[in-house]
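Recall that a protein's primary structure is simply its ordered list of amino acids. Everything else, from secondary elements to tertiary packing, is in principle encoded there. The following example makes that idea concrete.
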Amino acid sequence: MSAQQSTPARVPPRPTEAGTLRRERLLTRLAAVADARLRVLLGPAGSGKSVLLRQLAATAPEPLPVRAAAGDGGLLAGLGSALGCAPEVDAVLTAFDRLGREVTVLVDDAHPGTAALTRLVREAPACVRFVVATRDERAVWATDVPGAVHWFGYADLRLRTWDVEELFSSVYGVALGPEEAAALCARIEGLPVAARLLHVDTVLSGARERAAAFAEPLAGSRQLAGWLSREVLGPLPPEVQEFMVGVSPLGVLDGPLCDALLDRRDSGAVLADLAAGQALTLPVPGGVRAYRFHTLLQQHLEGELVERRGRHLARQDHHSAAGHLVTAGHWAEAHRGYARAEDWVAAAEVRHRARAGVGGLRAAASVPHTLLDDDPWVALAEARRLRGEGRLAESYDRYLHAEDRLSDPGLRWQCSLERSGVARWIPGGEGERDGDPLVDDVSGHVAAAVRGRPVQLLARAVPATSPEWDLSRAVAAMLDGRPRLAAELAEPLGTGRGFVALAARLLVAVLAASTAGRVTPTEFAALSTDAQGAGWLWLARVARAGAALLDPDACADAAAVLDECREVGDEWGALLTGYVLAVGLVRAGHDEAVDVLTATAARAARLGARVPETWLRVLLADELGRRGDPAAAAERERTEALVAATAVQRAARQGAAAARAMRTPAAPAGPALAVVPEPVAPVPPVAVRCLGSYSLVVAGTPVDLDVLRAQARRVLRVLSMHYGQPLHEERLVAALWPDAPLKQAKHRLQVAISSLRALLRGYAVDGFGVLRHGSTYLLALPPGSAVDVADFAGAVRDWRESRRTRDLPAMVERGHRVLDLYRGELLSEEGATEWVLAKRESLRGEAAGVAVALAGLEMRRGDLTAAIEVCERALRIDELDHRLWSLLAEARSRAGNVAAARRGQQAYRTLLAEG
């Protein structure tokens, strides 16, 4: 029989082969467009295209399955054999013309350059339809095709959670729960071959071992590593493989980023070629020609980077990549890069900037969250961040997560040591187990001293002298009632920005403030800024509260810090802040000192901190006795029992003297003791703070606003912000509930006002409350009250008056007062809420304007140091004010510090570029 007269050999439907999952969802979608001229299955190696074609062949009418792996020759040979004709395009087209019935040609593994396939798709009769599977979108010329064309990409081919669950249960006979299936599906990003290879890896494992393996990063699988090297990287030229390994530290890939990292100019074209060739290179949603590697390939390439470059150079590559990512604004990837480079300070800074700028790392990530969650270096960076914030239980869990996954023995030991140190401070956990801490666990030894017998740490023979051990001995000396020894040990440590230096500075400052040493509130503020910049937020909070030891007005700030500690779950920070606040209140003679002492001592007891509890109760017993309270006797008995249990004999012997020293600073004994007690200013009946975080203090007692609902707190803030100005109810509802119907919004306002009035009435202060005049509301305060926004406005008016009269000394004095009163942006807890923005920017602009003028005045007076300090202080108010940067550079240049002036100018340019 001639080729023209031949009929095709009918291929019988094939059942789904064993070991594969029938893709019913995809088969249904393919069947729904069976009339299309061309259906393309486009996906990377291992995405299940061949299996799907075989399953489709079992149901398609007159299926003609062929492979095109060998190009035109293989394709035509397969069709010629099936149709009984010569392996030529014309012969195959003629055979198609003679069929007279529907035929589906199933082409597997089509590659670019198959001109025969393009011609067949275009010229075959309408009864012939094509299903083409390919890993390269350039393999199919889909324009000018008669009839519809439907593409099914990797997003369609990838497994879903239910597919993974069914695959393991129905095909592999392995019970996999929904959560395990979801986690595994996320880790493999639905790549079918990965599920099969992981099953091969774990086929002999029990359920527990298999679950543990699936919960780990999967790049360590030998089966997967071999398949990625063979099927994904193997077909690529060596120079392209080298490119992929080189750019892997970036995570998110685009032409400019890769060019900058590798110092080349063609990265965009290489990336586009990899994406078109489905080399597990995926487009980033929303990105402009931006890509990323599949999670499995990303992890594999990072392993290859270490193999080829060595661990040290690989860390440098990650560090370099992170710098480029910061410049491009890819915060999550930059954080990961710095973490893998083991630059923990840079990672913390990126984390802080990301939260301030874009709402968090995960929200900004272009790479899958799984890649971040599985990365042990990211987990370690997160553990250290949480430790710095004082959130110890969460930090401990992240340390465990990192320790389980870290492969470097040295880093894993360091992780274990830090985890052990954190554990010692967690109440009810590992921290209270019997037994000594590890030899090198300095934090553990300090925790043991806090719980009892600090003299043991003082007498301990340390394994090697180090700043950490010296600091621990200083803390032990303070706990044992030896402030002079503590200061002698701590003072030499206070240089640098590391934890030891910061903690030593704080210890010395607290000791000095408690014993009339040389210290000022400004030093506490500077210490708080330095600690925050270094990522030790709990230390920054305690330092911020430290001014309460010196300034009675700062007790309100310390109370706010105490609330902040409680909100974030920083119990130890709350204990230290409570101590500072209690001493400040005792020294200021406030009645609530007893309540704060009692609450703080109770917190110390809950934390198992028996030595701090002992000192707190010594002070409490003395304060009760001073007031003639009958509870003093019982408190003394309790204190004696604590002294016996903790072996802090000095607490009993020196208790009264220590209490007196805390209550009233001793008179200066000479030039070395420069703190002179200042007269205590009268406490205003009501004090309202809006600049910074909001607070309301009545007779020195902070009002607990947490008892109010959020909308009532917000109404109070609005009224406070506009103190002295009646606000119409429609203005209030328009600002606070812009999307609610007017009637409903007014009802909400009435409910909020009612709850506010009920709270304020409880303080029984005449003239204190929310007044209504017609349709307006006003916050009324008794005479002598203080509202910081009103004080700030008055100071600005005074400043302007002094400028009008050209009174230079008054201008300088009043300008500094304006800056002193601006203690932060207006109602910082409100974020970018619309009703506060205009007023906030107005106040910020006024403060910055005064600072510009003040710096200019100081320069004209010849005081360059004062001008520099004003500029640096004001840049914390508005870091984008070009006038301040210019004045700062000029002042530094005049002072002879040209290098600092240039650095400042470069910092300003960098700030503008990042903005």
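The domain at 24-157 is CATH 3.40.50.300 (Rossmann fold). The chain has a mean pLDDT of 83.
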